[in-house]
C-alpha cells in the first residue's frame, strides 16, 4: 500500500471486484469503507463499513471520501451496450461524478486514486496483439470513451494539483462473487445458467478471442498499484493469453460434465474480434504477474457457484 495510507475507500464496494477487494484489504488490517448503491453479499463484508449511496450524489460521496487516504474507483454505472444507446447518460453517470470525486479528493487530502479502467474497450479493434499500453486508443463503444476520459482527467488533476493516481486497464475478469446482473461476465452467465438448466444467449459465433484474468490476480494488481512509486501511471492487467468463447464453453462443459444450451445470436458492432493485453509493463514495473492458470481459476469459480446451490 502507499506509504502512510491507513483508511481505504472502495467505490463500487458492493459489486464483484469491490467485494473481493474489501475482503482483501480488511484482511490486511486496514480500515475499509465500501460505497455503492447495492451490496450483493453483505455477509462477506465483515469488518468493512458499508455506506449506501449513489455515485452521482455529491454529498453522499463526500461523506464517504472524508478521512480516506486511498480511494479505489471501481464504479461504472453503464455497460458497453447501454452506453452506446445513451451516450449522454454514460457521461452523466460516470464522467461527471468522477470529476466531483477528483475535486473533493484533492481538497480532503486523498493520497492516491486507483481507477479500474477497461482493457477490453479502450483500445478498440487494435492491430497490436497482445496490445501494449502504448497502442492507439480508438474505442468503438461509448463505454471505452468514458473510461478514457476518466483516465485523462486523472492525469490532468495530477498535473494541476498533484493528486496521485494509477490506472489498471483490466481485461475480462472472472471469479467468485461475479453474478451476471448486467449481462456482463460471460463465465458467470454460462455457469449460473448451466446449473439452473437454462439456455444462454451469446452474441456472434463464438470465435471472438478474449483475455480472461482471475479475480485474485486482479486483487494482487490493485494492491501493487496502490503502493507503486514508479513514474508509470497506466497498467494492463490480464492473462496475456487469448481464448475463444467456444473454448471457454468447452472448458466449463468439461468441469460440469454436461452440455450447455447455447443460443447463438447475431454478432454486435461493439464487439472487437480479438482482445488480448500485453502485461509486460505490470510485470517489469509492479512486479506483478497472474498466478492463477485459467483452468484453476475456472475450477474455483465453478466450486463457488456450486456452493451457492443455484
Report the mean per-residue pLDDT as an integer. Answer: 94
CATH level-3 fold name: Rossmann fold
Strands in their spatial order, largest beta sheet = 3-2-1-4-5-6-11
Catalogue the unreliable spans. none
Number of helices: 10
Query: What's the level 1 CATH class?
Result: Alpha Beta
CATH architectural type? 3-Layer(aba) Sandwich
Query: For the terminal residues, how far apart are their CA atoms?
Result: 37 Å
Order of helices and strands: EHEEHEHHEHEEHEEEHEEHEEHH
Helix content: 40-55%
Estimate the strand proportion: 15-25%
Sheet with the most strands, sense and barrel status? 7 strands, parallel
Radius of gyration: 19 Å
Considering the protein shown, what is the CATH homologous superfamily?
NAD(P)-binding Rossmann-like Domain
Number of strands: 14
Tell me what you see in this structure.
It is a single chain. This protein is of the alpha/beta class. It has one domain (7-175, 211-240, 275-292): NAD(P)-binding Rossmann-like Domain (Rossmann fold). The protein is 40% helix and 18% strand. The protein is built from ten helices and 14 strands. A seven-stranded parallel sheet has the order 3-2-1-4-5-6-11, with helices on both faces. Strands 12-9-14 form a three-stranded mixed sheet. Strands 7-10 form a two-stranded parallel ribbon. Helix 5 links the parallel strand 5 (112-118) and strand 6. Helix 2 (58-65) packs parallel to helix 4 (87-108) and helix 6 (186-195) packs across helix 10. The longest helix is centred in the first third of the chain and has 22 residues, at 87-108. The chain is globular and about 55 Å long. The chain starts with 6 loop residues before the first strand and ends with a helix.
Amino acid at each position: 500500500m502507499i506509504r502512510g495510507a491507513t483508511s481505504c475507500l472502495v467505490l463500487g464496494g458492493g459489486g464483484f471486484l469491490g467485494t473481493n477487494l474489501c475482503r482483501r484489504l480488511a484482511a490486511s488490517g486496514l480500515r475499509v469503507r465500501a460505497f455503492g448503491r447495492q451490496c450483493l453479499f453483505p455477509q462477506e463484508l465483515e469488518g468493512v463499513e458499508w455506506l449506501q449511496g449513489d455515485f452521482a450524489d455529491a454529498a453522499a460521496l463526500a461523506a464517504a471520501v472524508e478521512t480516506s487516504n486511498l480511494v479505489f474507483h471501481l464504479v461504472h454505472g453503464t455497460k458497453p451496450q447501454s452506453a452506446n444507446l445513451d451516450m449522454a447518460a454514460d457521461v452523466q453517470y460516470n464522467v461527471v461524478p468522477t470529476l466531483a470525486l477528483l475535486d473533493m479528493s484533492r481538497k480532503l487530502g486523498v493520497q492516491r486514486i486507483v481507477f479500474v479502467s477497461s482493457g477490453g474497450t479502450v483500445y478498440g479493434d487494435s492491430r497490436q496483439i497482445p496490445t501494449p499500453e502504448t497502442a492507439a486508443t480508438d474505442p468503438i463503444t461509448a463505454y471505452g470513451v468514458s473510461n478514457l476520459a476518466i483516465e485523462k482527467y486523472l492525469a490532468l488533476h495530477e498535473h494541476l494539483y498533484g493528486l496521485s493516481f494509477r490506472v489498471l486497464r483490466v481485461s475480462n475478469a472472472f471469479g467468485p462473487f461475479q453474478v451476471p446482473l448486467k449481462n456482463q461476465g460471460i463465465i458467470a452467465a454460462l455457469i449460473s445458467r448451466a446449473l439452473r438448466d437454462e439456455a444462454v444467449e451469446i452474441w456472434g459465433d463464438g470465435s471472438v478471442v478474449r483475455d480472461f484474468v482471475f479475480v485474485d490476480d486482479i486483487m494482487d494488481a490493485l494492491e501493487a498499484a496502490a503502493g507503486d512509486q514508479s513514474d508509470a501511471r497506466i497498467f494492463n492487467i490480464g492473462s496475456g493469453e487469448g481464448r475463444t468463447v467456444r473454448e471457454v464453453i468447452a472448458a466449463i462443459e468439461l468441469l460440469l460434465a454436461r452440455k450447455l444450451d447455447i443460443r447463438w445470436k447475431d454478432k454486435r458492432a461493439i464487439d472487437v474480434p480479438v482482445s488480448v493485453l500485453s502485461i509486460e509493463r505490470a510485470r517489469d514495473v509492479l512486479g506483478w504477474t497472474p498466478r492463477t492458470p485459467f483452468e484453476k481459476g475456472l475450477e474455483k469459480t465453478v466450486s463457488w457457484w456450486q456452493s451457492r446451490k443455484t
